[in-house]
Write a structure and sequence with these properties.
This protein has helices at residues 2-42, 58-70, 125-136, 148-153, 172-179, 204-218, and strands spanning 46-50, 54-56, 74-79, 83-87, 92-95, 97-98, 109-112, 140-144, 161-162, 183-184, 189-192, 195-198. The protein folds into 2 domains: 1-43; 45-218, Rossmann fold (3-Layer(aba) Sandwich), CATH 3.40.50.880. Strands 6-3-1-7-8-12-11 form a 7-stranded mixed sheet, with helices on both faces. Strands 2-4-5 form a 3-stranded mixed sheet. With 220 residues, the chain is α/β, with parallel strands linked by helices. The protein has 6 helices and 12 strands.
Amino acid sequence: MNVGKKKKKYLWLLGLIIVLICFFVLLPKNKEKSMIDKTLKEENPKAALIIAFQGFQDKEYDDTKEILEKNNITVETVSSEKGEAEGKFGEKIKIEKTLEEIKVDDYRAIVFIGGPGALDYVKNTVAHRIARETLDKGKILAAICVAPEILAEAQVLEGKKATVWSQSFDQEEVKFLEDRGAIFSNEDLVIDGKIVTANGPMAAKKFGQKIAELLLGENQ
């Protein structure tokens, strides 16, 4: 009887030791996994969508933003002034941050949305600085519709393949890019390194998807 009791006691102690070992071995891993999950959540890529305060292209903005957010990319909308920006077709967007206020370091992608109002940025030196700094820091720089003209004027498309909105009877936009060293490609979406350009609203979903792919690829 004494031998049996001792055996049971040893087995009970052995079981307790195994449970404690498992607890202390697995706890750090679970804690580490929790910290990793928290870090990944906090480090969602962030993109700045730069729109004209008057006359941005509504569909280009909406489709690009929708695709990015579906891919867990945080989007901030920026314009030349604070207040309520108005799209070409009447969409109104609240703007809380201006071009002068944004810091490129805060974002993984800078995206210029098109529309007639985007032409206001073609000669905007702040927009030029942002475009150049984006590439200098190895981030993604994107523009759609007429907005690639902003990049061309900022002298970041020299020797780079790009597309831009144009009409068959008027190639003024194409000439604008080529005169500044860009290699025009007659495609709806063109990628050259970390520069993404698209030629208009019908390409906006593909535009947003490509930006998302590039951003998420950086996380792997």
